[in-house]
Design goal:
Elements (H helix, E strand, L loop, with lengths): L2 E5 L2 E4 L4 E8 L8 E6 L6 E6 L6 E3 L7 E6 L4 E6 L8 E12 L2 E7 L3 E6 L1
Parallel strand pairs: 2-11
Antiparallel strand pairs: 1-3, 3-8, 4-5, 4-9, 5-6, 7-8, 9-10, 9-11
Length: 122
């Protein structure tokens, strides 16, 4: 059974940093695109970042470009999201995703974690 377990969320002041981690188990995702989505209260889940299997290509939502960095360690079956210069509008539940693919202009995922709360205070 595939499991994606996020960690690293919490409360931080605006301008601060957090690093999210996501450990996958049940199968290896070393050849898959992995990434992160987020969902704020009252809003739809939105794409945040993705990384290909070799880490040679990364993709970011415009709202986080230059502030967030995605990375992965295939040996550990883990993906990370370094979040800097956090803003109150980054407050959301962040979901790890594995086996991402693009359909039209949107990103989709076959596997999801349970989510970790990130709260940025002003």
């Amino acid at each position: 059974q595939v499991q994606l377990v996020e960690s690293g969320g919490g409360l931080v002041q605006a301008g601060g940093s957090l690093r999210l981690s996501c450990a996958a188990s049940g199968r290896t995702f070393s050849s898959s695109v992995m990434g992160w989505f987020r969902q704020a209260p009252g809003k739809e889940r939105e794409f945040v970042a993705a990384i290909n299997w070799s880490s040679s290509r990364t993709y970011y939502a415009d709202s986080v470009k230059g502030r967030f960095t995605i990375s992965r360690d295939n040996a550990k079956n883990t993906v990370y999201l370094q979040m800097n210069s956090l803003k109150p509008e980054d407050t959301a539940v962040y979901y790890c995703a594995a086996d991402l693919y693009q359909g039209g202009s949107r990103w989709w995922s076959r596997y999801w974690g349970q989510g970790t709360q990130v709260t940025v205070s002003s």
